[in-house]
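Predict the 3D structure for this chain.
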Amino acid sequence: MESNENNAANPNAWVFFADNNINVAENIIEDAELAGEVAFNSQQAVEKYIKAFLTKNNIPFKKTHDLIELYLKVKAIKDWDIDEIILESLNDLYIETRYPSNIGFFPDHSLPTIEDAMAYLDFARKV
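Done. Predicted structure below.
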């Protein structure tokens, strides 16, 4: 991707980086010990796909990682008919920092299972 195309005002840049998150998750999904990383990359992909849609439709959004807040902006113009329960669960995985004490953990400090990670990756692909 050209550097002038790599900016937040370009929806294709959001999609490019979301696709990268999907690729990372797909490449590590077989390793159960990396379930948290798969889940985190799935969350990141969903966030970026939503931001691509909002950017393409000239819908402003503040700097946030809250999938629910972002998706409500999408729903205001188009209902994607996605599983909002999975969206809420995936939203709980986001962390502000990436330190060993909280990478890919839920608020209760548990890690997603490999089954959770697979469900999140499948969900991210659908978004």
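The two ends are 22 Å apart (CA to CA).
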